[in-house]
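Q: How do we represent a protein-ligand complex in a form that can be generated token by token?
A: Start from the inputs.
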Amino acid sequence: MVILAGEPVAQRLLDETQKAHDAFQKTTGRAACLAAIIVGDSPASVLYVRKKTEKANSLGIESRVFELSSLVRPYELKILIETLNEDPAIDAILVQRPTHIPDRDISLWIAPHKDVDGFHPLNAGNLALGNPCVTPCTPLGILAMLEHYKINLSSTCIVGRSPLVGKPLATLLTSHNATVTLCHSKTQNLKAVTQQADLVIVAVGHAHLLDRSFFKQDAYVIDVGINHKNGKLQGDVNHDGIEDVVAGISPVPGGVGPVTIAALMKNTVLCANLSTQFLRAQTASDISIFDE
Ligand code: NDP
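Then emit the structure tokens for the protein with NDP bound:
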């Protein structure tokens, strides 16, 4: 069984991103800048954001962190995002999303060319139309993993249909010629469906929801889940005894996580280039950055 480690894939993405950022700096004379907004002081959110900004800084990308109270009102967050949208020194905006403000509102507030997570309806729509611009980081990272390990996509089952992972991933893989079955909590007899697939990607957010009995012999499994249980990180798949069944599985931690952060860096440099084009387009109104 192959362990589908994220680190080599992440390193390859980071090397590509470093080159793209060097080229950006050469052309513009400045570093790209990622703004990260954290709402509340949850240690997990603070840690996630710190990991991302440290990775950005290691590539020479600047970062600015905005810490807001967990009681922040929606309009206060909107005003901050709008200020960052207008600030030419900021290229990409990341929001560690609070639970009391709907995701769809936050996605709409961020300018599409600074939408580093790729959640704005314009970016989601372009992805659905097969013309992706900024693609959500986890699906982008998973695609890089599948390409790196040369995994066949012809029979793919995705478990989980969130707007963050499952849905954009299904769209992205379909445009790479995968035949995708998308499952969710209302899927009848999930096991019978996953057992048919050569590749199963699980993003449900329930520790060990699937075990070895869900997979056919020699299938590949990407375990996206990150669940904090009994002081440990656990995936959505129970890896016990799985080596007798599957041909390869991504570990948790050390699988999709590092690749997602690397994909975020790639998107930051993409947004920096889009933001530069956007500024130019403001003085030459015939340029549409999303046509290029
Ligand atoms: P969401 O809670 O937004 O979505 C979960 C999805 O799983 C929903 O579509 C839901 O179905 C489905 N689901 C829930 N229970 C079942 C079940 N019993 N059977 C089948 N489907 C089920 O989660 P996310 O997509 O945001 O995240 C999923 C996991 O991936 C989490 O553990 C998260 O931490 C992790 N994650 C990891 C990342 C990484 O970098 N490694 C990045 C992003 C997420 P329905 O739509 O019917 O409710």
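The two ends are 42 Å apart (CA to CA). The CA atoms of residues 140 and 243 lie 27 Å apart.
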